[in-house]
Write a structure and sequence with these properties.
Number of strands: 2
Strand order of the largest sheet: 1-2
């Protein structure tokens, strides 16, 4: 009986490995078909005057930076 159990486990492990391999190939194909936005502008983050992270660049006021 031990031999048949060992054979069954080997088959199950091989089946699981094959399923993982197929899933990985499917995810790889999906990433290839639908590439994400990888341009530099979409990756940029800005910090506003309150210290909050935003996705829009700050508005530069030319009068604000001049010393008196």
């Amino acid at each position: 009986m031990a031999k048949s159990q060992a054979t069954f486990m080997k088959k199950q492990l091989e089946k699981n490995r094959q399923k993982k391999k197929e899933d990985k190939a499917q995810r790889k194909q999906e990433r290839k078909d639908n590439p994400g936005s990888s341009d530099l502008d979409s990756m940029m983050a800005y910090v506003n005057e309150f210290g909050e992270i935003t996705s829009t660049p700050p508005v530069v006021n030319p009068n604000q930076n001049k010393p008196k």
